[in-house]
Amino acid sequence: IFLPDGSGVDIIKPIRSARDGTPIIMVSGQSDVEEVVRAMKDGANDYIKKPFRGEELLLKIEMVLEATQAKWELADLRTKVRAEEEYKLLFSLSDRMNKVQAIVDQVANTDISLLITGESGTGKELVAKALHKASDRAKEPFIKVNCSALPRELLESELFGFEKGAFTGAHRRKYGRFEIAQNGTIFLDEISEMHTDLQSKLLHVLQEKQFYRIGGEREVKVNCRILTATNRNLEDMVEQGRFRRDLFYRINVVTVAIPPLRERKEDIPLLIDYFLSRYAEMYNRDSVRISPRLMEQFLEYPWPGNVRELENNIKRFIILGNEAQILAEFERKRRNGALPEILDLEEDPPFPVERPSRQPVAARRKGNGENDIPVHEKATLKEV
After folding, report:
1. What φ, ψ does residue 23 adopt, rounded to 5°?
2. What residues form DSSP beta bridges with 47?
3. What are the b/e assignments for 205-219, b being 16+ CB within 10 Å?
4. pLDDT at residue 173 in the model
5. How far is residue 152's CA from residue 258's CA, in Å, rounded to a whole number?
6. What are the structural domains, with CATH classification, of the chain?
7. Closest CA relative to residue 361, chosen from 270, 291, 242, 231
8. Maximum distance among all alpha carbons in the chain?
């Protein structure tokens, strides 16, 4: 703890900021209780006083590692449980979503390319993750790339990586997302926004299963499944010359269209129930209630932002606890069509909201025959 130029306690927080999961054992020849308590508060896992025997230190290390491993396993389990809840919710709703799942089940263990279409907020990424989890690649990485989030040059290096010295500032080799996704799945969201030059490189990856890093002279072999998604009409973009026709056919072997929330309003009560439970737990709210009047507004509203907008409204309701404000915003939207302002949801208010006992989210899937795949009129299965 005590160093010639300061206190070892002072470096605990920087270590925690850089590597939160790293176990820390403080060692000191002093018995300053206040310093020990401060070290533990700042994030130290344990403390040992000098002099000590080697066996004593090894025992401390073993105990700290076991506790850290248990913490990691618990966090991993919570992540898996949450993913399972979202998966079950996604496909335990309306018949239209059950038909989407039928296609997911049919193609999950193949490596054919799949295009997921739907408006923003409908759950395209959740469908992509469901495909990955149901596939033989489930234990390998699932890598998402938003093609609209980066300019052309940055997106190219993000996807394909670069060699040291490829351009100014390239001080070391960088592995691209395709390499990171090796043996797993790469999900290219908003594929419609990809520059035509990069479309050519993506087509080469799909055809040849290999690519060049920027500045590279040797092709890199890649083995990953490619899933794509868009909220635009790619066929129209092909006709307008804004998207490569040959790439469209390559990524569109199978198309899954996610219906907007306004076309499956029977899903809204179950989604509300799920989000109420999730965010009440997240924000430590003991009880939450949606009044019949607010539920009626939720059912009547067209939800242009789809499930994401519904989720945000439930989150705001949980945090603010002000149903009157949400009802007033619905009234304002009816008058002028304006959407509610986006609020800063980082801080919790000091007051609770109420929730009566609720029925658990129930799976309402209908059984299909083993070979019976009911195809939604927009979710088509195409063999090219």
Report:
1. -65, 140
2. 26
3. beeeeebbbbeeeee
4. 92
5. 28
6. 2-75 (3.40.50.2300), 92-108+259-384 (1.10.8.60), 113-252 (3.40.50.300)
7. 270
8. 78
Q: What is the pLDDT of residue 3?
A: 62
Say how far apart CA 380 and CA 144 lie, in whole Å.
24
Reported pTM: 0.67
The H helix count followed by the E strand count for the chain is 14, 11
Residue 255, strand partner residues: 115
Of the candidates 93, 88, 90, 152, the residue with the CA atom closest to the CA atom of residue 125: 90
3-state secondary structure at position 283: coil
147, 194 Cβ separation under 8 angstroms:
yes
* Predicted pLDDT of residue 143: 96
Direct distance between the N- and C-terminal alpha carbons of the chain, in angstroms, rounded to an integer: 67
**Within 10 A of 291 (CB to CB), how many other CB atoms are there?**
10
Partners of 226 in the β-ladder: 186
pLDDT at position 2, please? 58
Instruction: For the chain, list residues with pLDDT below 70.
Output: 1-8, 18-20, 30-32, 76-93, 337-384
Gap between the Cα atoms of 253 and 233, Å rounded: 16
Tokens of 67: 């506790």
Position 156: which residue type? E
**DSSP characters for 120-138?**
TTS-HHHHHHHHHHTSTTT
- Per-residue pLDDT at 233: 95
**275 neighbors 311 (Cβ within 8 angstroms):** yes
Q: In what order do the strands lie in the sheet with 142-146?
A: 142-146, 185-189, 225-230, 114-117, 254-257
Tokens of residue 371, six digits: 């070979």
3 state SS of 252: coil
What single letter denotes the amino acid at residue 173? Answer: R
Q: Look up tokens 């993750």; give the residue.
A: 129
Give the pair of three-digit tokens for residue 165. 């010295």
Q: Which two tokens stand for residue 333?
A: 């939207």
Strands 114-117 and 254-257: parallel
Compute the distance between CA of residue 234 and CA of residue 160 in angstroms, rounded to an integer: 24
Q: What is the DSSP string of 194-246?
A: S-HHHHHHHHHHHHHSEEEPBT-SSEEE---EEEEEESS-HHHHHHTTSS-HH
